[in-house]
Design a protein that fits this description.
Number of helices of chain A: 17
Helix content of chain A: 25-40%
Strand content of chain A: 5-15%
CATH class of chain B: Mainly Beta
Radius of gyration of chain B: 13 Å
Strand order of the largest sheet of chain A: 1-7-6-5-4-2-3
Number of domains of chain A: 2
Number of helices of chain B: 4
Largest sheet of chain A: 7 strands, mixed
Shape of chain B: globular
Strand order of the largest sheet of chain B: 1-2-3-9-8-5
CATH topology of the largest domain in chain A: Aspartate Aminotransferase, domain 2
Shape of chain A: globular
CATH class of the largest domain in chain A: Alpha Beta
Number of strands of chain B: 9
Number of domains of chain B: 1
Structural class of chain B: alpha+beta
Oligomer: heterodimer
Strand content of chain B: 35-45%
CATH superfamily of chain B: RNA polymerase II/Efflux pump adaptor protein, barrel-sandwich hybrid domain
CATH architecture of chain B: Beta Barrel
CATH architecture of the largest domain in chain A: 3-Layer(aba) Sandwich
Radius of gyration of chain A: 26 Å
Distance between the termini of chain B: 28 Å
């Protein structure tokens, strides 16, 4: 494979007059187009032969890295393997050829899928009802907050203008709260990364609409004080929101509804396996406890007494947050995953995710700095290399991992540490894969001491080595014309 | 000019009734290469403890918190074209210049020694 040649831009392969197509002669009369609609400039398309086009795109596709290419320990993203049966189900023509406006009676199977998944998620979350309509996690957060707003408004309680989020929260929490029209109040974490209940207490009053929490939190630590926090939040008249970003290790073991959470969302594309990482499509279903169902968005799928399914709208609802019933193919994948694993399988998934994370953590904590000791859940955070004298940064370590064919972990998040390196192995990796990764991580730590320049100059084996990320952010070149004008 | 610091890593250099607000050298190091500074407009009012803009680096985006209240009388336009100036010399490339509305607020801020302790505790 000639990477250097075929990995050029397709415009760089262009040769004047070359083409790989033949358009049949036009036998039809010419259509008179208005002058202002006619193109006056040359059509700027690359002129290339068919083999060059095929080799160009085929080579480019091999530059992609996915969970199907190798180990992908990207913390907080849950890049678990996506079973291929999910794809088979989602690609079934009976689903893919559906028009969203087809009458209910002609799409009973699709509605049953929606309803069945809705019930399964309610069971997993310990909630009364779910909507599958939100298109992604942050969209779910926004929907959940609008449910909370609709609930407070329905009681005529309009003075609640604040949402409390922990300083360790995912950035989407404050962003969603701001989009929902709330002012954001930050609550501090204790040294072990959990929410400081004493810091939370004075913040709670009748101007607080909700408190958003993630459990296990962003550091992979289980928040043990949820029942106490829930009673404090409820005593203040506010609702407790569960960000389901880290639901994976809890599967079948603990339910947000049982802990006292009122509203939650689930990232189907994380916990219930669907390809993600390129910006979607995802799905962020939102669940609510009993008493809040009427505020969920429209449209909804209900089961009638005769066993049939209907799409309905409720007047008390917050309104619509999506065009139809969400990203249906993602819902199909999630249900396929849940039904293939079953009750016991889901429980095993959560346990294995936790075991794998702890195994990697304990195997590396002598050479990487572990700021929070103890048992983690599905992920954990190192604060860079243990030996700071080498000046090898987390960025260097992450780039060196690329040389070994691994996707880098999440770096410089969470912001609680300067050199965050966040690892989430997920449940689907074998002991051999984990051991190989651990060996490579230990090799990099050794290299940092013995030959630090090798690590600092990594990656050495990738198609692109050292792009100037600052310049790229400042002056992004997004098309070929801009490149040629340089 | 006397320099005061906020625990949120902004400084204010005070010259009479005018304050030059920027982020500290410690903050620019922690942020890494700065790629964008979101600044208010001249004439805007900023309030002590409230955000007046944001700063974005290759690693993270952070709010800029006003160390003192006042009216924005100038913004550092050079940062719009070249935000890297913050990395080159954070203490001299201020972000906004404000007319202080309540100089007594400065008493709530830290001096250099006290701020150094804050940074040490964070490290």
């Amino acid at each position: 494979m000639n990477r250097d040649f075929y990995s050029k831009l397709i415009f760089e392969l262009s040769q004047p007059g070359r083409k790989g197509y033949k358009i049949p002669e036009n036998h039809l009369p010419e259509v008179k187009l208005p002058e202002n609609l006619k193109r006056t400039s040359k059509l700027e398309l690359p002129e290339v032969d068919e083999p060059s086009v095929v080799r160009h795109y085929n080579n480019m596709s091999t530059n992609n890295f996915g969970v199907d290419s190798g180990f992908y320990p990207l913390g907080s993203c849950t890049m678990k393997y996506n079973p291929k049966i999910n794809e088979e189900v989602a690609a079934h023509p009976a689903f893919t050829s559906l028009h969203p406006a087809t009458p209910d009676k002609a799409v009973q199977g699709a509605l049953e899928l929606y309803y069945t998944l809705q019930c399964a998620l309610s069971e997993v979350g310990g909630m009364a009802e779910f909507t599958l309509n939100p298109y992604a996690g942050a969209h779910g957060e926004l929907t959940g907050l609008l449910v909370i707003k609709a609930y407070h408004n329905s009681r005529g309680d309009v003075k609640r203008t604040k949402v409390i989020v922990p300083d360790s929260a995912h950035g989407t929490n404050p962003a969603s709260a701001a989009v929902a029209g709330y002012e954001i109040i930050e609550v501090k974490s204790r040294p072990d990364g959990t929410v400081d209940v004493e810091d939370l207490k004075p913040l709670l009053d009748d101007t607080v609409a909700a408190v958003m929490m993630t459990n296990p939190n962003t550091l992979g630590i289980f928040e043990k004080n949820i029942p106490e926090i829930a009673s404090l939040v409820h005593a203040a008249g506010a609702l407790l929101y569960y960000d389901g970003a880290n639901l994976n290790p809890m599967l079948g073991m603990a339910r947000p509804g049982d802990m006292g959470f009122d509203v939650m969302h689930i990232n189907l594309h994380k916990t219930f396996s669907t390809p993600h990482g390129g910006g979607g499509p995802g799905a962020g279903p939102v669940g609510v406890r009993a008493g809040l169902e009427q505020f969920l968005p429209n449209p909804r799928v209900v089961k009638n007494s005769d066993g049939s399914f209907s799409v309905i709208s409720d007047k008390k609802s917050l309104g619509s947050i999506s065009a139809h019933l969400g990203n249906f193919a993602v819902e199909a994948r999630a249900l396929a995953y849940i039904l293939s694993l079953g009750n016991q399988g889901l429980k095993e998934a959560g346990k294995l995710a936790t075991l794998n994370a702890n195994y990697v953590k304990e195997s590396l904590k002598d050479v990487y700095c572990l700021p929070i000791e103890g048992v983690c859940k599905h992920e954990f955070v190192f604060d860079g290399l243990a030996d700071k004298s080498t000046c090898v940064t987390t960025l260097n370590v992450a780039k060196r991992l690329l040389d070994h064919g691994y996707h880098a972990p999440t770096i410089y998040f969470p912001l609680l540490f300067h050199e965050s390196l966040m690892i989430e192995p997920t449940e689907t990796e074998s002991l051999q894969t984990l051991d190989e990764f651990i060996d490579v991580m230990r090799d990099i730590a050794r290299e940092a001491k013995e030959t630090p320049d090798v690590v600092k100059n990594a990656p050495l084996n990738t198609p692109i080595s050292h792009p100037d990320d600052t310049e790229a952010a400042l002056h992004p070149i997004v098309n070929y014309t801009e490149l040629t004008e340089l | 000019m006397k320099i005061y610091y906020a625990p949120s890593h902004e400084y204010i250099k005070v010259d009479g009734n005018v304050g030059y607000v920027g982020i500290t050298d410690y903050a620019q190091k922690a942020l890494g290469n700065v790629v964008y500074v979101d600044m208010p407009e001249v004439g805007d009012e900023v309030e002590a403890g409230e955000d007046f803009g944001a700063i974005e680096s290759v690693k993270a985006a952070s709010d800029l918190i006003a160390p003192a209240s006042g009216e924005v009388i100038e913004v550092n336009e050079a940062l719009a074209d070249n935000p890297r100036l913050v990395n080159e010399d954070a203490m001299n490339n201020w972000i906004i210049k404000i007319e202080l509305s309540d100089p007594a607020e400065l008493d709530n801020l830290l001096d250099e020694a006290a701020y150094a302790k804050v940074c040490e505790a964070e490290h």
